[in-house]
Amino acid sequence: MYAIETEGLTKIYAKKKVVNEIDLKVEQGSVFGFLGKNGAGKSTFINMLAGLIHPSSGSFKILGEQSHQNQKMGVLPDYSTFYDDLTAFQHLKYFSRLLNVKLPKPEILDLLQRVELEEAAHVKAKKFSFGMKKKLGIAQALINEPDILFLDEPTSGVDANAVLTIHRLIQDISKKGTTIFLTSHNLDEVEKLCDDIAIMNQGVITAKGSMQQLRARYQNKLIVFIKHSRLNEKQMSSLRPQLDELANRVEWDQELTTVTVDGEWLIPEINRSFLHANVDVFRIEVDEPSLEEIFIKIGGNQRSA
Predict the structure, then answer these.
(1) I want to staple 3 with a disulfide (CB 3.0 to 4.6 A). Which of 81, 120, 179, 181 is the partner?
(2) Is the pTM of this model over 0.85?
(3) Tell me, what DSSP letter sits at residue 231?
(4) Which CATH architecture is the domain 2-216 placed in?
(5) Looking at domain 220-287, does it have CATH number 3.40.50.2000?
(6) Are strands 179-184 and 148-152 parallel, antiparallel or unpaired?
(7) How far is it, in rounded angstroms, from Cα 157 to Cα 105?
(8) Residue 203 near residue 17 (C-beta atoms within 8 A)
(9) DSSP assignment of 41-92
(10) Residue 196: is its pLDDT beyond 60?
(11) 131-150 burial, b if ≥16 CB within 10 A, otherwise e?
């Protein structure tokens, strides 16, 4: 049984498929990373899984069930809202009552200690930094000792010390067998914390697998920058089919074209394509991209099998 299983999961806003027919399986007890740029559809996807919004079509199961009724889940939204005049302690007490969870004072203080907010237990939320609010949100998500924890951009906008605290906490929670579904636009974070990942771009999953699998698939790509004379329509018509055949991805500009290719042996062919189209080439530069560039740029151009 999978912790999370989706089939054709779709969400439409204003006739646009923000999440487009997603099929995904997440193993129980794993830390699963959902990577993508801001606006890729990650938050909408996680909000459907968490039961915060309804899908337009498709289905999903949480621990084998289509209903959230019997599931112990914790959710950290991208932006958590707190009451300015309540302290951290009072917030956890209040939310534990909403969840019908008996949480005595020692357990509340222990929860605050886990997220390194014990010294701010009786400080009002209006005095909290953004990072402190993130940590309080995680504490809130842990109140019912969830089997599945959804974390939407848990370290976005927080300082370096808070990032380290949150990373340690995620690793600690994972060791206890909790399934963690983590969205992020930070590849380094996902690489450090996650067993498997999926990359979302414009509402679709463009790549998925373990870090090792994705490295093997994309690490050898090269990004080639060609500085050239200004292109006219005739030259564009000549170049487009040639570059589309040679490259995995082409980004066009009037005087700078960027192509992503499988290896350096294709660079002379690319140069000849420009010369054949009567385009003056002034400079060619090659970049061996970081993993983040590979997954965001290449991943955005391919749909996963």
Answers:
(1) 179
(2) no
(3) P
(4) 3-Layer(aba) Sandwich (3.40)
(5) no
(6) parallel
(7) 30
(8) yes
(9) SHHHHHHHHTTSS--SEEEEEETTBS-STT--EEEE-SS----TTSBHHHHH
(10) yes
(11) bbbbbbbbbbbbbbebbbbb
